[in-house]
Amino acid sequence: MLSSSTLATPGRIACPFRYANGKACPGHVVGIEAYKADLEWALDESGHWRFGFAPRSHYHLFCSEKGNHAGFKRQDDPQMKFHWRDLPDEIRNLLEQTSPGPAEGDRPATS
To answer: Cα 82 vs. chain centroid, distance in angstroms?
Structure first.
């Protein structure tokens, strides 16, 4: 089920990070990266190409307020790393419902 913060602001998913004092980060998720993902394109029975992916490792989430919530010269915060089974429902739903496209910097030039 989607959280109330997600429903209140369409397209926004609350950042899962909590500060040491228990306060929730006010930001929202602005990026997701899959690490060590297996990518596959396959021809289906109807003759259409289908894309599939399956991360072998984990996902990193990025926040509108603090990126990966890493401090100066520190690694990504573990609260922003998830294996598939541990992803918040709204993130897992998003990944299952979106089609991949080229990364912003990898789009072909148009004239």
So the answer is: 10
DSSP the chain: ---HHHHHSTT--B---B-TTSPBPS-BEEEEEESSEEEEEEE-TTS-EEEEEEESS-EEEEETTTBT---TT-PPPGGGEE-GGGS-HHHHHHHHH------GGGPPP--
Domain coordinates of the chain in residue numbers? 4-100
Kindly report, residue by residue over 37-84, the tens digit of the pLDDT.
Answer: 888 888 989 999 988 877 778 899 999 998 888 866 667 777 888 988
- 61: CB partners within 8 A, 6+ apart: 15, 16, 29, 31, 32, 68, 80, 81, 82, 91
Give 59's strand partners.
34, 82
Question: Environment class of residue 39 by beta-carbon count within 10 Å: exposed (0-12), middle (13-18) or buried (19+)?
Answer: exposed
pTM as predicted: 0.67
**Nearest-angstrom CA–CA distance, 101 and 15:** 24
